[in-house]
Design a protein that fits this description.
The protein is an alpha/beta fold and 404 residues long. It folds into two domains: 2-216 and 388-403, Rossmann fold (3-Layer(aba) Sandwich), CATH 3.40.50.2000; 229-386, Rossmann fold. It is built from 14 helices and twelve strands. It has helices spanning 11-26, 40-45, 66-82, 102-112, 142-170, 178-187, 229-236, 254-268, 296-299, 312-320, 334-344, 358-370, 372-386, 390-403, and strands at 2-6, 30-36, 49-53, 94-97, 116-120, 192-194, 211-213, 242-244, 272-275, 288-291, 305-308, 325-327. The strands form two sheets. The chain has a seven-stranded parallel beta sheet, with helices on both faces. Strands 10-9-8-11-12 form a five-stranded parallel beta sheet, with helices on both faces. Strand 8 (242-244), helix 8 (254-268) and strand 9 form a beta-alpha-beta unit. Helix 4 (102-112) packs across helix 5 (142-170). The longest helix is centred in the middle third of the chain and has 29 residues, at 142-170. The protein is globular and about 65 Å long. The two termini are 14 Å apart. 50% of the residues are buried.
Length: 404
């Protein structure tokens, strides 16, 4: 099959699809990944064809309130929708759509007659088990959780409304609202495969048919890839260090976060690795090293703990490594994943980003590193994750669903 995966957002929203795409290619399929231009090297490095999507996710990882977050998301989606159909050619046999691209991809599927499946990194369907992942709220009881989940979907529909109207006009399709199209897909039991571990989120029993949790899709890492020499030297020069990074989040907060990180590490008596990321973390010293992007799969198993923003991918990578975490969620789904890690006992209680101080971080690191219960819980979850083959199971289900 000629398969097009469409994904957009930050690095964590795109990188897992390089692993899924590589598994599909290994199974004999012709795979392209459509995403924004900044991730072209990531896609090509996995041996996949790159297709460009408009919109640039850089600079959108700042700290903002929910209203500002919705405005930013709507602007990004509208820009994305303006060139979305240019990435799809008539020879495509199947569209695999992320949660961000699905509300646009459904209309392309209708116009071009191309079958589609969902490949999501977060649970978006309403359930009584937990409130919607984007709200960051605590469970309100099963009935209220489901109601909040339906309300969250309607809010997402609003974000896509303008982009959907413009896209359908360009495709010469009759007007249909974003919410009407979503409900149509739900009634048809449109299949969605979820690329996260059941160690973090077991499949809710009240989900509709067609929704499956298959296991994590790990970003592609070349078998020959190694950590940089200076990082290897640092790892070998003393006790296991702590990693501190905020990925694509906290742009413009680098000076404050770097100062907090250094003070916390020194207060806790720990060595540290700061990952620059969008925030621009940086510090020097015999006990601290600053690095750029490196594969989490190679680095995390060699650490004492990981301090991170609780993005879905970083949360899974720390858990897979069997390493305790200190989470500092910034926005969107991050409080949800931070809560799941804490509930497993693999992370300390989350520190909300705006409440982060050197003292709070040092105390949390002291707990995570010295209290062995956190490492034991992380190791137990890692053993569970090792039994899952997320990409392999997704390939089998995709082939089964398309044959049917």
């Amino acid at each position: 099959m000629r398969i097009l995966i469409a994904a957009a957002g930050s690095r964590g929203d795109v990188a897992p699809y390089t692993g899924l795409g590589a598994a599909l290619r290994q199974a004999g399929h012709d795979v392209a990944l459509a995403t924004t231009d900044v991730f072209a090297p990531l896609v090509r490095g996995a041996g996949l064809e790159f297709r460009g999507l408009p919109a640039d996710p850089r600079g959108r990882g700042g700290v903002a309130g929910k209203r500002e977050l919705m405005r930013t998301a709507a602007a990004f989606i509208t820009e994305l929708g303006q060139g979305f159909c240019d990435a799809v050619d008539e020879g495509t046999d199947l569209l695999l759509l992320s949660a961000t691209t699905a509300p646009l991809g459904w209309h392309l599927s209708e116009a071009m007659g191309i079958p589609s499946l969902g490949v999501y990194l977060q649970p978006t369907a309403p359930t009584g088990n937990f409130p919607p992942v984007v709200t960051g709220s605590r469970s309100m009881g099963r009935t209220a959780n489901r109601m909040a989940g339906r309300f969250a979907l309607r809010m997402v529909d609003r974000i896509f409304e303008q982009a959907v109207a413009e896209l359908r006009h360009r495709l010469l399709l009759p007007p249909v609202s974003a919410s009407a199209m979503r409900r149509r897909q739900e009634r048809a039991n449109w299949p969605v495969l979820h690329g996260f571990s059941t160690a973090l989120v077991p499949r809710p029993s009240d989900w509709r048919s067609g929704l499956e949790v298959v296991g994590t899709w790990w970003p592609h890492v070349d078998a020959a890839e190694r950590l940089p020499a200076d990082l290897e030297d640092f790892l070998g020069a003393g006790p296991r260090p702590v990693f501190i990074g905020f990925g694509s989040m906290a742009a413009g907060e680098g000076e404050r976060l770097s100062e907090i990180a250094v003070r916390a590490l020194r207060r806790a008596g720990l060595r540290g690795i700061l990952q620059t990321g969008s925030a621009g973390l940086a510090a020097d010293g015999d006990d601290i090293l600053t690095i750029g992007d490196v594969p989490h799969a190679l680095l995390f198993p060699r650490l004492a703990a990981v301090v991170h923003h609780a993005g879905a991918g970083t949360s899974a990578a720390a858990l897979r490594a069997g390493v305790p975490a200190v989470t500092v969620p910034v926005t969107a789904d991050q409080p949800f994943w931070a809560g799941r890690l804490a509930a497993l006992g693999a992370a300390t209680d989350p520190i909300p980003f705006r409440s982060l101080t050197a003292e709070r971080l040092a105390d949390a690191l002291d707990q995570a590193v010295k209290q062995q219960a956190y490492a034991r819980a992380a190791a137990s979850a890692a053993q569970h994750m090792a039994t899952e083959d997320g990409a392999g199971r997704a390939v089998k289900l995709i082939e089964q669903l398309t044959r049917g």
